[in-house]
Structure formats: C-alpha cells, structure tokens
TrEMBL record:
<feature type="domain" description="Gfo/Idh/MocA-like oxidoreductase N-terminal">
    <location>
        <begin position="6"/>
        <end position="125"/>
    </location>
</feature>
<dbReference type="InterPro" id="IPR000683">
    <property type="entry name" value="Gfo/Idh/MocA-like_OxRdtase_N"/>
</dbReference>
<dbReference type="Pfam" id="PF01408">
    <property type="entry name" value="GFO_IDH_MocA"/>
</dbReference>
<protein>
    <recommendedName>
        <fullName>Gfo/Idh/MocA-like oxidoreductase N-terminal domain-containing protein</fullName>
    </recommendedName>
</protein>
<dbReference type="InterPro" id="IPR036291">
    <property type="entry name" value="NAD(P)-bd_dom_sf"/>
</dbReference>
Length: 325
C-alpha cells in the first residue's frame, strides 16, 4: 500500500495561501486536509474559491484546526507579528510547520519558535520558494566551479515590483502596526537569502543599510545573472546566464566570449518542490523516526540574523551593525 500523503492544515486565508495551497494539491506527497480562519464562512469560501477537495475540513478558529489529530503539518501564512504565538502552539500540538517568511520579528522570537520545534520533534521550513527550484542547484554548480567562476567577491541581489496606489495605502507590508518588518521582511528576506546562498550561508561580519543601491559585478573569473530568481517567468522552465573570462574582440566591436544561457526544465513548479521536500521530511519523521532536518531552520535563522542587522542599521541612521550569532 502506498504511503498516505502528508495532510496539511492551513491557518489563515492570506493571498499567498492561494499559491501555496495549489502547490500542496499539486505535490505528489501532500494534500490539503483542513483550513481555518477566525470566520468559518471566510474559510469555507476560501476552500471553495481555491478548489479544495470536497472532504476538506473547515474550521472557524485556528485552535480547532490544531486540535485535529489527523493534521500532520500546518502552513502558516499569517502576519509576522502572529508567527511566534501560532508557530509555538503548532509545535506544541506536534504539527510540522511550513511558515511564511520572515519566520519572526527578530531572531530572539525565532529562537523561541525553534526551541518549541526541537522540544516537540517537528520540522520547520520557511516559504522561500526559489531555493527549491532545480535551476538554483544548477547555478550553485556554476558558482562552485573554480575554473568557470573563480572566487566570489561581490553579490548584487535586487528584487523590485510595481506597487499600485491601493497597495501603497492598504497592504499590510506598508503598515508597521500590522507587520513591523514591512517590505524589508517580505522583499528584503529574498535578497538576504540569495546573498547568503551565494556565500554558502557564511554570515557577514557587519551589515550596513544604505539609502541607495550600489551595483557591482560578481566573481573573479565569471558572472552569474538572472532577473527572475524569486518567481520564474514560466512555471515549467527557468533560465540563467553565465560567462567565464569574458573579453572583447580585436577591434572591441563585440564580445569574444558570449555569455551562455542555460534553461532548466521541470515537471513541477518550485512551490510544489518546496512542499514535496517538506512533506518528505515530515514523512521520514513519522514513518522512520528520524530527527527533524536542521538544515532549513539553520538557514532561516541566518537569514533572520542578517534581517535583524539591516533593521538595526536603519534604526541607527544607516550605521554598520555587527552580526552577533
């Protein structure tokens, strides 16, 4: 008999939950089992609008979902200020946690969440999707190639998006009273994670927030470039460009070594790869008695540490802030 899929409960009906719930349904080893909102009608409407299976349980409180013994794992798309309370309660209920980022308002809160997870033997992973895309692994192979790339010297990571007037007025990311980290915690998390990823998650010694971006090339022998690292232009393929020891032709009218484009085709979107990886970890804990994988919370904590330092730099007038691990 095939193993049953990991049964997810979703706490909260945020917009991002539409994308991740679709990913849960597409993942071969996961299924949407329950959804909760503080308003039962909202939860029911969310389930219907997103095509949840007819057997999906609908709850009018978060606590009710956490008390369901058949829920294996919980996806938390709640505002960051609510993560500490609900992540800890989720862990105490022995439910594995897939949480939106940032994981917490600061690393002190993060450590409380991690402590609860470790004490209760549950897996935690943050919802940074792009690191799970197969393209990311291919790019890492290029960065690790000393002949083609050389030594990493600088990384420029930029994530921008158009925000309409309604977003700038009403979105939670521009309301410090609702989400204290705002756009820094949401968009900034990606840039921080990408820099840490490129540096094999070695923490920087200091961090300085700046008012204006400084753009640089990266690598002593080559460059890696892409513009869609967070959300690929297309679900089933993603590209990146590399160049190694580029130069000009004799008359300097063109390049003697053109950059090469690499396309990675995939069967499943990156968010499904994320859910599949998380569900596999949960299955190993349930079926084989393995310990929760420390890789993902370790990476999340380092991202949180740098995020804290950037926030502190802003608060101190853009002064350098030392990273304290």
């Amino acid at each position: 008999m095939a193993d049953l899929p990991i049964r997810f409960g979703i706490i909260g009906c945020a917009e991002i939950a539409r994308k991740v719930s679709r990913a849960i349904q597409l993942a071969p080893n996961a299924t949407v089992y329950a959804v909760a909102s503080r308003n039962v009608d909202k939860a029911a409407n969310f389930a219907k609008a997103n095509g949840f299976p007819p057997h999906t349980k609908i709850y009018g409180s978060y606590e009710s979902l956490l008390d369901d013994p058949d829920v294996d794992a919980v996806y938390l798309p709640l505002p960051t200020s609510l993560h500490l309370k609900w992540a800890v309660l989720t862990a105490q209920k022995k439910k594995h946690i897939l949480t939106e980022k940032p994981v917490a308002l600061n690393v002190a809160e993060f450590d409380q969440i991690l402590k609860a997870c470790e004490e209760n033997g549950v897996q935690i992973m943050d919802g940074t999707m792009w690191v799970h895309h197969p393209r990311t692994h291919k790019m890492k192979e290029f960065l690790n190639d000393k002949e083609r790339f050389g030594q990493l010297k600088t990384v420029n990571s930029c994530f921008t998006f158009f925000a309409d007037p309604d977003f700038l007025k009403n979105d939670i990311r521009v309301k410090p009273d609702l989400d204290a980290l705002g756009a820094l915690g949401d968009a900034g998390w990606y840039g921080i994670r990408s820099i840490l990823w490129a540096a094999d998650y070695e923490l920087p010694k200091t961090v300085t927030a700046i008012r204006h971006p400084v753009l640089n090339e990266a690598g002593t022998s080559g460059t890696l470039h892409l513009t869609d690292f967070i959300i690929p232009y297309q679900e089933h393929e993603a590209s990146y460009t590399t160049s190694t020891k580029p130069g000009f032709d004799e008359l300097v009218t063109g390049w003697s070594q053109l950059p090469s484009e690499h396309t990675v085709t995939v069967d499943l979107p990156q968010e499904v790869c994320m859910v599949r990886e998380f569900a596999s970890l949960v299955r190993n804990i349930k079926k084989k008695g393995t310990q929760p994988d420390k890789k993902w919370p370790t990476i999340s904590r380092k991202t949180q540490l740098v995020l804290d330092a950037v926030k502190a730099s802003i608060d101190k007038g853009f002064q350098p802030v030392e990273i304290v691990s």
